[in-house]
## 1
Amino acid sequence: MTETAVISDRRLERQAAKRRQARRGQAIAVVSSVVVLGGLAAWVLTSPGWPEVRETFFSWSVFKESFPEVLSGFWLDVKTFVIVEIVVLVAGLVIALLRVSRGPALFPVRLLSVVFVDLFRGIPTILLVYLVGFGIPALQLTGLPTDPVVLGGIALGLSYSAYVAEVYRSGIRSVHRGQHDAALAVGLTDAQAMRHVILPQAVRRVAQPLLNDFVSLQKDVALISILGPQEAFRIAQIIQGENFNYTPLIAAALLYLAITVPLARVVDRMGGGGEVR
Amino acid sequence: MNAPVLEIRAVTKAFGERRVLAGVDLTVAEHEAVALIGASGSGKSTLLRCVDLLTEIDDGDVLLDGEVITDPAVDPVAVRRRLGLVFQAYNLFPHLTALQNVVLGEMRAHGISRAEAEERGRALLARFGLEGREDDRPDHLSGGQQQRVAIARAFSGRPRALLLDEVTSALDPELVGEVLAAVRDLKAEGMTMVIATHEMSFAREVADEVAFLHGGRIVERGPPARVLDAPERPETQRFLSRLLEAGRI
């Protein structure tokens, strides 16, 4: 077996050609990036309004001054996001399970889950925040929450539970019928088949779209600002109004990005490894 | 003849306009293995699914140990726990390991403790030549290995009868032997079986009786040597000569 140790000339040639191709590809990528990105930057920086925009949107002194305040408001966004996300994960699953349930006794809950999804997925989230945030306190019923953060969270929860329920349901429906048959054939009940066979496969399949919805939810938390709570966007708006400078909004935008970009990378990574055949 | 385990009486089933089963009668005695042969689409799979109550029959009765299991008042879950079904496409649970596939039914349907179920599951996998593959997921197993896991899974609940639906037809030819060996092994133990198959050699070797399903009915039944070598009915003769031409015997 001496041949295996010797690398043939043909193979060396192929390796050399591959290396040349790779080097050439890298060079092209660098040049095209410089041209495209540099061109875009030049285009913006030489625009007639740029000096003014730089002062009103990218003022370093205003940024330094406003950032701590915006950041303190951002904790409210993060807290709201985490709590609403957990509620949405559970509520969405429950609604999806109700919707795929069988049996005549469950007809009303099936109907309710369909109505729930149609209603709350069909209304713009911003409108829901208004309706819940101003409508529920107007009822003046004791026992109902009046805290605008809670009301805003409820509105977001309703909207996103409807979306997430449909994501779960699509996952459940994507599991092959043969899996349900096999689960019944080994003696499981319908509920056991769902719990031990269908759901584990469905959840794995929809992990990526679910995370995608959470990136979206994280941003939409800013909508509760219309009810008054001092979260990042609201604080940034207030500072902006005080000194006619938009830089605090940029500070808020950077804070949202600090959460959504890492989340997006997690979503990307799941696309590669989380698949189950 | 031993007492019948399965009795299929005048069972009919139609899907819309298409009548698949048109009055099937078939009795399978204890320890008996019956090979169910017939052309593709002749209703072999449908018949097995009807017996396991995965498909509802239109008319007739299916009896398991003398009890009418197709009565709407009977709990289908309890019936399925007394039967085992092996699918043509294996239908293993892809998110579970080989061992977990085997023990899921035992633990959840038969209420056996994890420790006991796993001990039995390991023994069962080893018996079918799968020692060392317990923790592999189905997509890391060959078709033959997957089907043997599926057989172990169906057998793990100690069924009164095992229903095998074309268990070798999705396999590459060189993998058929290992699955047949597993079935032969169960036959040697006295397992009552209904084996829907295209493999006439398999029918000849494992089955006590061969039943030919044609036009929604069992048109001929008898020992393999008689039915396969000297069929009485013209439909059986035509079917077998077509298989012969295709080189499938």
## 2
Amino acid sequence: MSSKKMLAALPLAAICFMPPHASAQDPQGMVVVRDAQTGQLRAPTAAESRALAPKATTSMAAPARPSMVTHPGGARQVKLGERGLVYSVVTRDGDGKLSDQCVHGKAAADQAVLGHQHAQHSQQANDDKEGRHEVR
Amino acid sequence: MKSANTALQLCAILAALVLSSAATVSQAATITIVNQNAAGIGFNDPTPATPVGGNPGTTLGQQRLYAFQHAANIWGATLTSSVPIRIGASFVPLSCTANSAVLGSAGANEIWSDFTGAPRQNTWYPSALASKLAGVDVATPGEPHIIARFNSRLGLFADCLPGSGFYLGTDNNAGGQIDLVTVLLHEMAHGLGFQTFTDDETGAEILDVPSIWDHYLVDNRTERLWVDMTPAERVASAVSGDGLSWNGPIVTAAVPQVLDPKSRLTVAGNAAGNAAGNYDVGDASFGPPLGAAAVSGQLMPVVEQPDGTGLACAALNEVNALAVRGNVALVSRGSCDFVAKARNVQAAGAIGMVVADNAPGAAAGMSGDDPAIAIPSVRVTQEAGNTLRAALQNRSRTRSGVTASLGIDPNRLAGTDAQRRILMYTPTTNAPGSSTSHYTTDAKPNQLMEPSINSDLTHTVTPPRDLTYPLLQDIGW
């Protein structure tokens, strides 16, 4: 059976819609601040709330270090989130030719993107490093 | 949270309906794309779009979603699992400049070990695979098995690779654009388990536990597995050139039906001297592939540069045309595309082309496309080029006494080790983020899971064209 026929027979991917970050834990909670002038606890102002809010509130945020959870029965789990991602990066040379590379980690991906302009003058050397199939 | 739970329940219901409607469900897996974009952006972008290449969407968001679904369908029809796989997906702004951009990223969201049904103890598995093996969804409730993020600004803004956006058709006819379905198939494979969770650059395992991947990654010089190496040994093998192979039995069994014989250049003749012998070469994506019937002729250099080399970036002059006519042309890399060089030497009557590199490094492939090119071409290292030029010093205007044969090695398959196991990507230079979680760039034909996506790929993940699914089978799929 051809792959196209197989696809026609097995429409097995479903699309679901969720609000962004829908699975995140509610970052809000009971927050109080000590008033600098009165010394009394009170509800934070809007500005104080923003300052106290966690910088990353999504379920996808990468933990600083992997932390392991051991479940009843012995199963162990580590959440990788962003740190497990493999990135595909594309660059365009002076002649408009596109080439891409797949790298691990956001830092390497950003370096590949932002370092490209500096590397354009030595494009051939870069191509060799990355083992691409060059066009020139 | 209520809306999220409701959405997940709807997902489950939809997935169940899809499952129940497929008669051969036991031979497939359900992959659910969980749209994590808010209204009006990403998958929900209302910008009008014209249907393209089999993608019937009439908005940008619809077309993105259809392309995602198409790629997921291909994997869903290939894999088997009783547990629906959830991909948490979104189109969001990612790093960009006018001439470079992150296309997207994907990976496993959680990894698990020592779950019920785990084939190997004390070993990390990606959560989608762990769920298949356990027969139940092990993932944290509400969490996707795979995360996928793609660039929502690509090609659409002046500071984000303008003019080179995603091709959203599903007919593999991207032309000069970036074929989203191909990129998705590649990135989804990483999320399904085509990746080690051990750090390539430090050799450190996550919490001193190896990945299932590491049980099949073998140093082909010592026959030691990554799982048995020290971190330092893993790091050294990751930049060994061609020192790491995939040792899984399903991939190795499929290699002979997928990979073609390795190309080579054989040099001989009375004047060859020290240059005589076989040379490793990089293949060209243009011109006819090398075959059992080698193309042979006198090796003659193009000479038009002050240092005695030749670039062949313009029509050959009379002397060079006479030299290469009916012979194999030796040219240097640089200044113009490989296809331009091939065009010029072919127009002058050459029967083949050897391109000598202009920088150190291994013999790499040559990309480009021109259906009018009818002669074979190969690329050799800079060192080999120097050796060949030295042997051509004493020649007539039409003969060198050095013959070049462009053919194949019947005993070796392209991109494999001596035991016919496929090599993994281990460049000798430690490029940041370079990952052994890819096949070698020496495979022929090009494979989906090489570190760069080549224009000749099809939307195929199985033999006889591709070795991606066999590797996933090796680790437990």
